[in-house]
Amino acid sequence: MEFISKRGIELPPSPIRKLAPFADDAIKRKIEVLHLNIGQPDILSPVESIQSLANYSEKLVKYSPSNGNLSLRESIATYFQKNNLQVDSSDIIVTNGGSEAIIMSFFAITNPGDEIIIPEPFYSNYFSFAHITGVKIVPVTCTIETNFILPEISEIEKKVSPKTKGILICNPNNPTGVVYSKEQIEELIEIAIKRNIVILADEVYRDFIYDKLTHYSLLNWDTKEIQERVIIIDSFSKKFSLCGIRVGFLITKNKAILQTCLRFAQARLSPPSIGQYMAEEALKTSNEYFIKVNNEYSERRDILMSEMSQIENLKIGRPSGAFYALIGLPIKNAENFCEFLLKDFSLNNKTIMLAPAEGFYINKHLGKSQVRIAYVLNKDKIIEASKILKEALKEYRE
Amino acid sequence: MEFISKRGIELPPSPIRKLAPFADDAIKRKIEVLHLNIGQPDILSPVESIQSLANYSEKLVKYSPSNGNLSLRESIATYFQKNNLQVDSSDIIVTNGGSEAIIMSFFAITNPGDEIIIPEPFYSNYFSFAHITGVKIVPVTCTIETNFILPEISEIEKKVSPKTKGILICNPNNPTGVVYSKEQIEELIEIAIKRNIVILADEVYRDFIYDKLTHYSLLNWDTKEIQERVIIIDSFSKKFSLCGIRVGFLITKNKAILQTCLRFAQARLSPPSIGQYMAEEALKTSNEYFIKVNNEYSERRDILMSEMSQIENLKIGRPSGAFYALIGLPIKNAENFCEFLLKDFSLNNKTIMLAPAEGFYINKHLGKSQVRIAYVLNKDKIIEASKILKEALKEYRE
């Protein structure tokens, strides 16, 4: 490892990555692998967005402004206004996916060694963003037994130290599917004001809410006192099944934070121009698209829950949003089980790939027997996958 | 500046940015501003690349692999092989422009506080990449009097300390247009081997070489001893006038460096899919495109040099590559002069925007009276711009 930096060596590899060679090997053995391990939706992108490529009329694909095209930022603002959330185009910086929006925000509000509080389990790439920016993640533990709701406010406040710069929530949540209630968010706001820290709200799954629940965006609390400490993270990736265009954005009404993020944005010149063009077209998609997509995910969730309830001794976190569920398995080591699924098991020449949940926790032991299931496959496949899980659990011996 | 981190406050703003409000104001006063200040080429992107968008047939724009599509990496490898440089698709990571390739490389080989040696003047965003990664830039000063060639090898070696992890060269150079000779590069290699450090070669302008010179890529020295310490940075932005697609790449045959960069690449999921599709199409562009583009830039360079030679008391760095020239003006403060050009001067209702060279130096005073001219406008406009410069210098009083 000559030449490699300590921070390079210590950057955690993607937790799913470890299993990839076993999946490749299964495919070589002609086993069909049902991928429930990643957040790549199978729902098609809006046709209008892709068809619009044929009308792209620029002869020179230039850099866009570092904060993104004004026309796209205006369209994003309009989208929020339609949802009764007051956003102005000047509150927005367009980024290389939601990932970059989080990295920029961390840079803007923390120095190396500073702390960000995050409810665990959390999206595993938060580990990487924290590592890259030298941030220490302080977890607030949520448990499958209480369906991953936030603990008592006093428990959260205990985590705030002089080094704490912010609280990051993902709502609806990846990996748990939990949608935070109005009251829970109000408690977080109370802490943020009292302890003078920022709230970062990763709302990339904001359009996927089930059971007729209401999604409370941090933008809902529109007083200056609150908005000056709020950064919203959003993206076109999941909203419109456009993961590959790499267009996300951040929103903040705190001009100092915005200007600081903009300087980071200038350093990398601009977000992708063609992706921005497609994103703008995607925003013209009719509301029916969302209704259809929402229904589809909601039905998948129902089928998955119903299938899981037929397997003995599972602990099930019931998701109300996004397209993930965390399942506690009646085994000691879920990673070994995921490996077993790929290496040693198949049913009618098929098997499933799951994400071991350990990678979503700071306190690794909490996720040791859990897996995350992404319901990004159609209903028939979800039923099939559930059967495979059931049979595999019967056959698996630790 | 509540909530803003020290590193956020200290991140240098783009040096050109400061002048932007004056340019905006000039435009409001109906003054046409000729932009010689930025590296956005005016040469059109290859038509085939843009037309290919109409044939994009995916219905779902997915994440690509974190290291980029295999088909694109294979096409890149073939492009290098055609230029007699041995590159394999597995040596490449596709990035969000060349910018990200440099940031990833810095992360992979340095810890905060480590040093990278860079000949100055250098591309001003290197300051930002160093700031973001906590790297200290140690400059090797090149002067306009010697047309910005590298100083004696002993001068460079003096800069190597126990904290030095690499030498970064930009070849052909932004902002000087210098193309390093075979002998100069061999001297750098000698130091790199002797002191056991890495050479990062930013070769994004590799296709723009004039006067029938040969470009010596760091890939030309293909022994294991050398290649294990080489990282090449490249991009589609300038090569094909496709700045907006945000597709660059790094090449290294050092597998440990590649794997470490890949983990950083995984953290941001993937480079843009549509940009990669266009990049692959662009690589099918016939060699005539490059010949034409090269001739165009070469002629512009000649005209610019001829015009500049008619202005008294200029110091001129004669570029042999890329599309930049550094010019020493017979004034004390070039930044003030650039402001004057936008605020207080016009010729036939036109003026020019230049980049003050101070932002390209660590030793600011060296660039105090210099400006960078990007010859990204057609020949008539370059002649016009030169006249404006000549007249403005007559009128300007410090």
The counted number of beta strands of chain A is 13
**What is the helix tally of chain A?**
15
Looking at the structure, what is the overall shape of chain A? globular
CATH fold-level assignment of the largest domain in chain A = Aspartate Aminotransferase, domain 2
- In quaternary terms, these chains amount to homodimer
Domain count of chain A, please report it.
Answer: 2
Strand content of chain A: 15-25%
Sequence stretches where pLDDT stays below 50 over 5 or more residues of chain A: none
CATH architectural label of the largest domain in chain A = 3-Layer(aba) Sandwich
Strand line-up across the major sheet of chain A: 2-8-7-6-5-3-4
Order of helices and strands of chain A: HHEHHEHEHEHEHEHEHEHHHEEHEEEH
Q: Report the CATH superfamily of the largest domain in chain A.
A: Type I PLP-dependent aspartate aminotransferase-like (Major domain)
Structural class of chain A: alpha/beta
By CATH reckoning, the class of the largest domain in chain A would read Alpha Beta
Helix content range of chain A: 25-40%
Gyration radius of chain A (Cα, Å) is 21 Å
